[in-house]
């Protein structure tokens, strides 16, 4: 009997050797993204930003903290393209160095909260019931406190500093990701192809990883790019009120804060860091939208 | 006598919805021999899909629950085994073709990858080999292997169902459960898909459980037929027995409601009434409120399984000699 069941006639496969090319889906996404002009422009801005951050030492005309007290609050000129601040520091150089911090805060905080929030949301959505209830009520508690206020509270407890700002911003945006992932998982969980993958013998973990999460990737990615923007803004906000990075670190929010006393006499001290923040946040938002359109295979032409 | 591949005994499944218990499947038993095709026929809500899912233990719990019964397959009772054992059976020894090919494929992976996935899950091969084999299987179901690198939305409905068949057959299963595989397809494609399924089934000597409400499909594909009504099998027999000699009034009703090419009629003859609400299945024979031949006993007594001849079984009082004789003795006119 048992030997009998072992006898499996092999599939009578065609003699030809057809191959399925392994097609990298990201190449497709890339081409679709390139068709979106606005997204390409914002991607350019972001690439520029990353390059600026990486090459800050090379391209910055002055060291970030070099004071020149004979040259304070100079308007933009040939030597100092974006002017100088109240200590005679070159604003362009400080913005260039500041991009490092903004990028770090943005990406680390978002990676942290997407990972943790995603895991929480996926577990809550997939298993449902009391697991879902406990996890999501905990997220609701976090959500009940406005994000920036929560971040302020956390930084207050942990103390100012780069790492603490990242943790604070990350925790503050945790519930957003958990909720988005949970909602997507709920809508995917009962689809027939999830049942089909159970019918081919996949485990729960593999179903979440291979079937559920990839199908809710689009909203997560969009939210994550927007989240980077929010994290940069929050970090700048924290620094602005003196809870984030401490002077003389060249941080965009802190620069705004330092310059606000001279806003009538020297607009450039606040304007240029402000423009830097606005530009990066705008570029991230547009890029996030473009990415969403490109990543959804159902929108493919 | 042919070797029995799978034996389902006294299977009962119920769902709980808003505090009410819905008895979807009640004490059904059947078996499928090697290489045979069993057709399960019934109206919507008769419990056909639930039966199929219960065999693979894919019923969502909650709300569903397998109350009792056993599914003997390969020397094991699938209803008692651990989840990890079942995972090795699903897709490998028993696999399933789903009703709607539009939604049963994962939209974010190429179809080749989805076929390769099953192979990779159950056979010890590298991913490249699995992908290569997936290409061959695609060719087998009549799709050029190059199209394996396309996404499901780039295929038509019939082709998607072929992909579904390819996934189901990828590991050369012993039992194929096809849950209304042609319902979502148009008629010409239905014929193609059915032909493909029967051809492959014969080539691979796979047994099949075909769930459908289309008696035409059954007559073309099946060896055995089980007619389901309100979660019970009311009649069971070989294709010949059922089609030549439909015995249960419900089966007769089903056949009568098919339009006949040779007779011109203004109206079809449907079975009066609707399927009972599964929360309130009628007492006695669940079909009695709609049955044109209902007797007094039908209301109070549940009919047993009565063996007619060969493998033909029917669950109806009309064939129960003790009931019929009882009526004659009390001089009551029976109304068959």
Brief sketch in words of this structure:
The complex is a heterodimer of chains A (301) and B (336). Chain A is mostly helical and 301 residues long. Chain A has 13 helices and no strands.
Describe it for me?
The complex is a heterodimer of chains A (301) and B (336). Chain A is an all-alpha fold and 301 residues long. Chain A has a single domain, classed as Orthogonal Bundle (MetI-like fold). Chain A contains 13 helices and no strands. Chain A has helices at residues 2-6, 25-34, 37-54, 56-59, 91-127, 129-144, 147-158, 162-189, 192-199, 204-215, 217-240, 252-259, 268-295. Residues 1-8 of chain A have low confidence and may be disordered. Chain B is an alpha/beta fold. Chain B has two domains: 4-229, 3-Layer(aba) Sandwich (Rossmann fold); 251-329, no CATH class. In chain B, 32% of the residues lie in helices and 23% in strands. Chain B contains eleven helices and twelve strands. In chain B, a hairpin with a 2-residue loop joins strand 4 (64-73) and strand 5 (76-77). The longest helix of chain B is centred in the middle third of the chain and has 18 residues, at 187-204. Chain B starts with a strand and ends in a 7-residue tail after the last helix. The model of chain B has no long low-confidence stretch (mean pLDDT 83). The chains are: A mainly alpha (301), B alpha/beta (336). At the A-B interface, helix 1, helix 9 and helix 10 of A face helix 2, helix 3, helix 4 and helix 5 of B.
């Amino acid at each position: 009997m048992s030997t009998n069941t072992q006898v499996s006639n092999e599939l009578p496969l065609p003699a030809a050797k057809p191959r399925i090319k392994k097609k990298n889906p990201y190449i497709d996404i890339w081409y679709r993204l390139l068709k979106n002009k606005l997204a390409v422009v914002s991607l350019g801005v972001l690439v520029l930003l990353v390059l600026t951050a990486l090459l800050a030492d090379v391209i910055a005309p002055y060291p970030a903290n070099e004071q020149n007290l004979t040259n304070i609050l100079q308007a933009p000129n040939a030597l100092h393209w974006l002017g100088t601040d109240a200590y005679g520091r070159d604003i362009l150089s400080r913005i260039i160095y500041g991009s490092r911090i903004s990028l770090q805060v943005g990406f680390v905080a978002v990676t942290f909260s997407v990972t943790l929030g995603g895991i929480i949301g996926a577990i809550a959505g997939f298993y449902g019931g009391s697991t879902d209830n406990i996890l999501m009520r905990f997220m609701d508690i976090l959500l009940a406190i406005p994000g920036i206020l929560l971040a302020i509270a956390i930084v207050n407890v942990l103390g100012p500093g780069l790492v603490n700002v990242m943790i604070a911003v990350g925790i503050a945006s945790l519930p957003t990701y958990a909720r988005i992932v949970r909602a997507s998982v709920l809508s995917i969980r009962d689809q027939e192809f999830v049942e089909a993958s159970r019918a081919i013998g996949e485990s729960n973990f593999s179903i979440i990883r291979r079937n559920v999460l990839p199908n809710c990737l689009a909203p997560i990615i969009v939210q994550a790019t927007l989240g980077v923007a929010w994290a940069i803004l929050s970090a700048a906000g924290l620094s602005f009120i003196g809870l984030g990075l401490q002077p003389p670190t060249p941080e965009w929010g802190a620069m705004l804060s330092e310059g606000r006393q001279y806003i009538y006499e020297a607009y450039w001290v606040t304007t240029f860091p402000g423009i830097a923040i606005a530009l990066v946040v705008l570029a991230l938002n547009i890029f996030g939208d473009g990415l969403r359109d490109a990543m959804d295979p159902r929108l493919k032409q | 006598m042919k070797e029995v591949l799978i034996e389902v005994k006294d299977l009962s499944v119920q769902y709980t919805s808003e505090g009410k218990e819905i008895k979807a499947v009640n004490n059904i038993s059947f078996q499928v021999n090697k290489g045979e095709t069993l057709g399960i026929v019934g109206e919507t809500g008769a419990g056909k899909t639930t039966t199929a899912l219960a065999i693979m233990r894919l019923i969502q719990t909650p709300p569903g629950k397998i109350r009792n019964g056993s599914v003997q397959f390969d020397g094991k009772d699938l209803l008692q085994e651990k989840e990890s054992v079942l995972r090795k059976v699903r897709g490998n020894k028993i696999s399933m073709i789903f009703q709607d090919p539009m939604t049963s494929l994962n939209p974010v992976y190429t179809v080749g990858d989805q076929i390769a996935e099953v192979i990779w899950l159950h056979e010890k091969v590298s991913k490249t080999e699995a992908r290569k084999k997936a290409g061959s299987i695609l060719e087998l179901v009549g799709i050029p292997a190059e199209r394996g690198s396309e996404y499901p939305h780039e295929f038509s409905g019939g082709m998607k169902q072929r992909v579904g068949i390819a996934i189901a057959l990828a590991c050369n299963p012993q039992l194929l459960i096809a849950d209304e595989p042609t319902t979502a397809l148009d008629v010409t494609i239905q014929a193609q898909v059915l032909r493909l399924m029967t051809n492959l089934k014969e080539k691979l000597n796979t047994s099949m459980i075909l769930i459908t409400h289309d008696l035409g499909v059954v007559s073309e594909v099946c060896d055995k037929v089980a007619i389901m009504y309100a979660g019970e099998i009311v009649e069971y027999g070989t294709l010949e027995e059922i089609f030549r000699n439909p015995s249960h009034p419900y089966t007769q009703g089903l056949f009568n409601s098919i339009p006949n090419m040779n007779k011109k009629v203004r109206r079809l003859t449907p079975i009066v009434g609707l399927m009972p609400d599964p929360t309130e299945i009628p007492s006695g024979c669940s079909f009695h409120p709609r049955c044109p031949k209902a007797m007094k006993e039908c209301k109070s007594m549940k009919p047993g399984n009565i063996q007619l001849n060969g493998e033909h079984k029917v669950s109806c009082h009309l064939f129960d000699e003790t009931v019929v004789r009882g009526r004659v003795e009390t001089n009551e006119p029976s109304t068959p």
